[in-house]
Design goal:
single chain; mainly alpha; 3 helices; rod-shaped; DUF2533 domain-containing protein; DUF2533
């Protein structure tokens, strides 16, 4: 019976991590969209918030074998808007 409880607890932790990862992914996408909007308008933008979220996501990803996300540079944003 103890094994079943351990498995159930592990599954619960995995589901919680997955929910947190998806929440952070949505926040990251929003932060990227904000940076793109500012860049397109020719205004100053920073990638600090995007990369803070990315670091949190990658911490979860490494523990639960989720896909890792790349850190975003200002150059990446500028290149994207020039497409």
């Amino acid at each position: 019976m103890a094994v079943h409880l351990q498995i159930a607890e592990q599954v619960k932790k995995h589901r919680q991590a997955q929910k947190e990862f998806l929440k952070l992914d949505a926040e990251r996408e929003h932060a990227i969209e904000e940076a793109l909007s500012l860049a397109k308008a020719g205004q100053h933008f920073e990638t600090n918030e995007i990369n803070r979220i990315t670091t949190e996501m990658n911490s979860i990803a490494s523990a639960f074998q989720f896909p890792m996300r790349k850190q975003v540079t200002e150059q990446m944003v500028k290149e994207y808007i020039l497409r």
